[in-house]
Specification:
The complex is a heterodimer. Chain A is built from 14 helices and 12 strands. By secondary structure, chain A is of the alpha+beta class. A 10-stranded antiparallel sheet of chain A has the order 2-3-4-5-6-7-8-9-10-11. Chain A is globular, with a radius of gyration of 23 Å. Chain B is α+β, with helices and mostly antiparallel strands. A 5-stranded antiparallel sheet of chain B has the order 2-1-8-7-6. In chain B, strands 3-4-5 form a 3-stranded antiparallel sheet, with no helix packed on it. The chains are: A alpha+beta, B alpha+beta. The interface between A and B is large, with 58 and 56 residues.
Chain lengths: 363, 360
């Protein structure tokens, strides 16, 4: 280590490098999978922590690796807390509906609305936990703001999306991502999210319209082929053959599901590019050079890996996805990192149990 | 030995000189002395570089070249490494023990507790639960429209009530569904599908099927199954966190296996009790065997198939009920039988719906 390396110059450019050796994640996938089986999945909190630790430590920024300090026990306690705080009331509502007659049915709609709020709440707390357990040069990341506010925003956007028959959802996704990234801080240095810049430089609606039209086409083709098959084979013949009946249904679901990955690849790539473009730290801007073909390859190959391995290779998929995306991230401008001070905020004590209960954590 | 030091207060890198003496790693940062006991140091190999942290200064980090660090402290595991491995072993053993306990709950405790729980459930509560199930089921599977036929079935159900001490109001109804089946709900509702009514060749066969379902109600099998499903759901959601993932699937499979075993036993019991109920009403109980005979023709014969089924094999059921069956009065007169056969013949026909929703 030279003096030049050690001294942190003011106004550094930023370079991110993902150095994970993906072969090592094969072994980790197998280990986590087996321990999950033996412990009836109770090990999953510790397994997830180890995956994050390894992904973080192989992500280097300006020659210094990230560090993940989260613990499996924190996730486990968070999960138990979520089960106790949410499971019991939900169980009460379910019982009230089964035994309480029609009046109890009035609780169902508010419960579903509350669940949408909780999804947003959970996303925020998961992101806050991940940020607070991420260190670089010994300084913690953090998330400002309140999970409740984000939960309400999520609910509002979800309702607007419903009212607009889904057409508001791309804007909602970008705004929600912007709220999270804009609330992030590294030590005492806040990130910002410039929604106008994200909108102007990386539009997302053309790709969304294209994807939606393609999906509509897939439905027409899928149901058309099915109707043709039933006419040809005879409705009664199909009905009398449960295997054929089931096979046709699965083929339709598979066709549309697989087709949706292809159809929405341009939109998903545009959405990630747009979010990255809006993120700012001091005078540093980000640009994700992710083409729709890249996204298509990543999504399809990930689905194949997960399905063929019955979910065992999920850690490998998470590591390669991180590597894939970070290798396409370009960073422009400079930031004075040496003067960043540790934030007084230590972050939540337990993990994102709520988010974990809903499977909301990105990794 | 040179190292890069981060003090945990700023992101500023500082170059420091390390020495190792008396089991402590010593270095000065801007004339501030730091002494880290080696036994409290955790190291993380990052490929050529090692990141050191110490419990005494949790936020501070030292970045040292790996080869230099190993030369300094030796090649064996550190105290922190040993502690971590010990904790990991304890964790896996502890979690496996909890996993074993979950299996014990699913395989032993739940099945053993479901019977007493079902018997302790107040009939009024069971009836209310059944009404709720029935309301949900009949949203998708509408009751057949012919009221004369429905009334005959309902009155037939009434005849069983005195035999089961009047604890439950037996309510037999014909429904439209895309399969031939009959089911009992908690609290006395018995639903018979239009396909089953069509497939039944004689009044004896239909009365046998209904008697079988009434036996389920009497023995409170449905309430037992409800308690089992509730318990399994509770275990699944609170302990293993939902339905996805290989481990969760293992618990689900274990639960299903014990449920299927319970279900086969309950079916056999309901067959025999159904025959007994018909005898007490002085009705013919020969229909059950002939009905199972016809089912057996359609059924693949394999022990594995039976293991994976919620019913015993139809051939076995036919043999068991034939041995006990006695002739008697037919449950319905020819006129009544003709009306019952017409119960579901009116109404819309959705032949061109999507396969899973297809009905006749």
């Amino acid at each position: 280590m030279s003096e030049a390396e050690a001294a942190a110059p003011t106004g550094e450019t930023v370079a991110i490098e993902q150095r994970a050796d993906l072969r090592s994640f094969l072994g980790l996938s197998l280990r986590n999978g087996l321990l999950n089986l033996v412990t009836l999945t109770l090990y999953r909190f510790w397994g997830k922590t180890e995956v994050r630790r390894r992904v973080w430590m192989s992500t280097w920024i300006n020659g210094e690796p990230l560090e993940y300090t989260g613990r499996g026990k924190e996730l486990f306690l968070g999960f138990l807390f979520a089960v106790a705080a949410l499971g019991a009331p939900f169980l009460l509502v379910v019982f009230a509906v089964q035994f309480g007659g029609p009046i109890a049915g009035l609780f169902v709609l508010p419960m579903y609305i509350f669940i949408i709020f909780l999804v947003g709440f959970g996303q925020f707390t998961a992101f806050r936990y991940l940020a607070s357990r991420t260190l670089w040069r010994g300084v913690r990341f953090g998330l400002r703001g309140k999970a409740v506010d984000y939960g309400w925003a999520f609910l509002g956007y979800a309702l607007l999306s419903g009212l607009s028959l889904g057409w508001f959802w791309p804007a909602a996704q970008r705004r929600l991502a912007g709220r999270l990234w804009g609330a992030l801080s590294f030590g005492d240095r806040p990130f910002k999210f410039d929604l106008d810049r994200a909108r102007r430089l990386e539009p997302i609606y053309p790709a969304f319209v294209l994807g939606s039209l393609a999906i509509a086409g897939l439905y027409v083709i899928g149901f058309g082929v099915m109707a043709w098959g039933m006419m040809t084979l005879g409705v009664d013949a199909v009905r009398a053959n449960p295997a054929l009946n089931l096979g046709m249904s699965y083929a339709l679901v598979g066709f549309i599901g697989f087709g949706a990955i292809i159809a929405y690849a341009p939109y998903n790539a545009a959405r990630l590019r747009s979010v990255a473009t809006g993120v700012q730290l001091d005078r540093v801007w980000f640009k994700l050079e992710l083409k729709w073909r890249d996204m298509l390859w990543l999504s399809l190959s990930n689905v194949v890996l997960v399905v063929l391995s019955l979910g065992f290779l999920m850690p490998l998929v998470q590591a390669r996805t991180t590597q894939f995306l970070l290798s396409r991230l370009r960073i422009h401008g400079e930031v004075d990192l040496a003067t960043v001070r540790q934030s007084a905020e230590a972050g939540p004590r337990t993990g994102e149990g709520l988010a974990d209960a809903f499977g909301l954590s990105p990794i | 030995m040179r190292a890069r030091f981060y003090d945990g207060r700023t992101a500023q890198a500082r170059e420091v000189e390390l020495t190792l003496a008396d089991g402590r790693l010593a270095f000065d940062d801007d004339d501030r002395p730091h002494r880290w006991p080696v036994r409290d140091i955790a190291d993380e190999d990052l490929g050529g570089i090692v990141r050191l942290s110490c419990a005494t200064e949790p936020a501070a980090r030292l970045m040292v070249e790996a080869a230099v660090w190993r030369a300094l402290r030796g090649h064996g595991p550190t105290g922190a490494d040993k502690r971590r491995r010990r904790e990991e072993r304890r964790l896996v053993v502890g979690l496996s023990a909890v996993g074993g306990l979950i299996l014990f709950l699913v395989f032993v405790v739940l099945p053993a507790a479901s019977g007493p729980l079902a018997r302790a459930t107040p009939p009024a509560l069971e009836q209310r639960l059944g009404e709720s199930f029935e309301a949900q089921l009949t949203t998708a599977m509408r009751p057949c429209r012919d009221l004369d036929g429905q009334a005959l079935l309902y009155r037939f159900g009434d005849r069983f009530e005195s035999l089961i001490d009047g604890r439950f109001n037996i309510r037999v109804r014909a429904i439209e569904a895309p399969f031939a089946n009959a089911f009992a709900l908690p609290g006395g509702a018995v639903l018979v599908t239009d396909d089953l009514i069509r497939d039944a060749r004689t009044p004896d066969e239909l009365s046998a099927v209904i008697a079988h379902e009434v036996a389920h109600v009497e023995r409170r099998h449905v309430m037992q199954a409800t308690w089992r499903a509730f318990g399994l759901g509770l275990v699944l959601d609170t302990l293993v966190g939902g339905g996805s993932g290989a481990g969760q699937q293992a618990v689900l499979l274990a639960g299903s296996a014990t449920n299927l075993r319970f279900s086969r036993k309950a079916e056999a019991e309901a067959d025999l009790e159904g025959v007994a109920l018909l005898k007490r009403l002085r009705l013919s109980s020969l229909g059950m065997a002939t009905f199972f005979d016809r089912l057996a023709v359609k059924e693949p014969r394999s022990a594995v198939g039976e293991f994976l089924s919620n019913h015993p094999s139809s051939a076995r059921r036919a043999a068991a009920t034939r041995a006990l069956g006695r002739p008697g009065v037919a449950a319905f007169t020819p006129e009544e039988w003709a009306k019952i056969k017409q119960t579901c013949s009116s109404g819309a026909d959705l032949r061109f719906a999507i396969p899973p929703l297809v009905r006749r």
